[in-house]
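Its record is set out here:
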Amino acid sequence: KYLYKMIKAHDWLLKGPHPINPVPLPADTTYLKRLEQAVVPQSIPAKVTLQQRMGFKYRQVMGEVIYPTMKCRPEIINHAIKLSQYLENPAEEHYHALRDLVAYLAATIEDGIYYWRKQPVMELPEGPIPRIKTDNYDLPTQPFDQRTLYGYVDSDWGSDSTHRKSITGVLLMFAGGAVGYRCKYQDTIAHSSTEAEFTAACDAGKMILFFWSILHDLGIEQTNATVLYEDNSGALLMANAQQP
């Protein structure tokens, strides 16, 4: 209901048909560099003029996007973090990027997190099963027991040209859906991709321990080690103590 209300309030943002395979924001470095190097307004009157020309308040719409990001839309968390850096003085490129993000939410308004359960709850309304939007980064389906926690972790390496800090992304799965996710800039500047990935894996390990304590309190014991998927061979070798 929140997204329907939000989209209805900003229907003037959504001109034209929705794309067949919508994406929150392009992930190519050229696009991201354009956001980072965009020329911002140099005075308060210029900021006001730009806001009036774009037709919406950047800070207001950004705040409305944060809520679904935290509740049930982990796929846009990295984009929300990126665009929230420009709250104080957004450029025209940032306005367009935020408009694209809202358009993505409108095109995928029925998407969300679905969880497995033994018996259906008939009181819940029926809805369409989310469509998988295939790309080069699909997570493979894992043959885990639905009561087993497992996770994924990844990191870039200094892709933000303004401060060169890497971004950690963690996703924890349970009962067929995401139960925990996190995306944040790392506290230190990594000197290699291996260091960035290893730092991310360490954060993911702490997050797993936290969820173990929650599951323990709920009476869902995790007897085996939680599997964490990491795609950097150097970080894996370090974690397994096979190389210094």
Observations:
- The mean pLDDT is 83.
